Amino acid sequence: PCIARIHRANREHHLDCSARDDPHCHRIHHSAMQFDAVWTALAFGALGCLLLLACRRRGGKDLPKAMRRLVVVEPNALALARVVVEEEAPLPVLKRGQVLIKVCAASINPSDYGAWRARSAKGEYPLPTGQECSGVVVATGGGVSTLGLLGRRVAAFPGSGTYADYVACSAWRLVCLPGSVALADACEFFINPLTVVAMLLTARAKRATAIIHTGASSALGQMLCKAAPGFGVEVVHVTHRQQHVEMLHRLGATHVLNSSSDSYGAELDEKIRALRVKLAFDCVAGDSAGALVAKLPPRSTVYAYGRLSSSYLSAIPVIDLIYRGKKVEGFMVTRAFAKLGPLGLLRMLLAMQTIKRELQTTFATEFADVRLEEVYERVVAIDPERPGAKSATNQKLRVVFD
Q1: What is the pLDDT of residues 228-237, one digit of tens each?
Q2: Rounded distance, CA 60 to CA 151, Å?
Q3: What is the C-alpha separation between 247 and 261, in angstroms, rounded?
Q4: Cα(282)–Cα(296) distance, integer angstroms
Q5: What is the C-alpha separation between 282 and 144, in angstroms, rounded?
Q6: β partners of residue 72
Q7: How many CA atoms are closer than 13 Å to the CA of 249, on its beta-carbon side?
Q8: 185: closest CA among 363, 352, 393?
C-alpha cells in the first residue's frame, strides 16, 4: 500500500510539473523516482530472504541412524527369489524438493513383486521394493515445493522403496490427506484407483458405452464396479467363482458372468451383442485374452494389464488380428492418461482429487495386514504360477509399520 501511494503521488506530481514545464519540479520528480526504486528493491529483497528461510531443510533431528527395509538380493521365480529384510539399512539422503516419510502402511500389488522375478534394468542390487505408501512427513530437503509439508499426513508414490520404515519422495508425488481418512487406509491411493479412472476415461474417449473386465472380484475390480456408473459405462464383470458373482451383485453390478460355468461362452456372446461391447480389460493373461479376442466383433481392442494366471498371453487368433482389425495392447496407467491428449495430466490431477473425496467409499479396499518379515511368505503363497496357490481375492495385502 505504501509503494502504491508513492506511485500515485509521483504520477500526480509529474502531471502537474509537465503542465507547468518547471525544471525544479522535474528534478524533484527524478529524486522521487529514485526513492521509489530503492524501496521497491528493498521490499523484493526482504521477500526473497523470507522465501530462502522458508525453503531451507526442516525436521529430521530425532531420526534413528538406521531403518529396516525389504530388498531383492537376486531375482528369480517368486519361490526362488532371494528377498530379505535388511535390519540396519541407512536412511535416505534427501535432495532438494524431496521429503522423508515415516511409513505407516504400504500396499502390495502384483507390479510390486514383479520386481522379484525380472532383473533390474540398472542391475543395482540389493533392490528396494514397494511403490506406494502412506505416512507422515518427518523431514524436508528444502525447496518451494516442500513448504508446509512437515508433519503432514500423506499418500505417496515414490516408485520404489516403500517397504521400509522411511522412504524419500518428491514433493510432487504425494497427496496431503484429510483428517477424516485413516492413514493406513490411504496406502493404496495411486495404482488401483488411478487405473480404474484411466480405464473408464479410455472407454469414454473411444465412445464405448460398455466394456468387459476380467478378474472382477479383485480389489481393482470392486472399485471399477462402484465407479463405472458415474462415468456412464456399463461393465460386464467376469469372475471365476459363484461366491464372487454374488459379492459383485451386492456391490451393485448388473452384468456378472462366472467363467467356470458351462454356459459362460453363450452368456458372454449374448452380453457382447446386447451391449455392443468392443473393449475389454484383461488382468488374467494366459488363454483369457485370446478367448476375448475370439469373442469380440471386428475392430475391437483387448487391453492386457495384469498376469494373475500366467506371465504370457496365449491362444490369440492371428486371423482376427490380420483380417478383422482386432488389437491386443498393453495397458499402463501413466501411458493411458498421456494418450488422452494435452489435457491428460490435468485429468490425472482431477482424478486424484476425486479419489481423495471418495477414498472411503468408491475406492475403499479391505486389507489383510502383514509385518515386514512376513511379506515374502505371504506373497509366495498367492503366486499364481505356483501349484496349489491360494486365491488372491479378498487377500489384498499391505505392510504395516509401528
Answers
A1: 999 999 999 9
A2: 11
A3: 17
A4: 13
A5: 42
A6: 83, 127
A7: 9
A8: 363
Asked whether 79 and 380 are in contact (CB, 8 A), the reply is yes
Asked if the model's pLDDT at residue 89 lies above 50, the reply is: yes
pLDDT of residue 161: 96
Rounded to whole angstroms, the Cα distance separating 365 from 224 reads: 12
Express each pLDDT in 65-76 by its tens digit. Answer: 999 999 999 988
The candidate with the shortest Cα–Cα distance to 173, out of 147, 146, 206, is 146
188's grid cell: 493404496
Bridge partners (DSSP) listed for residue 302: 280, 328
Q: Which residues lie closer than 8 Å to 327 by C-beta, 6 or more apart?
A: 300, 301, 302, 321
Residues 6 or more apart whose CB falls under 8 angstroms from that of 53 comprise none
Per the DSSP assignment, residues forming a β-bridge with 174 are 156
CB atoms within 10 A of CB 182: 14
C-beta of residue 163 within 8 angstroms of C-beta of residue 375: yes
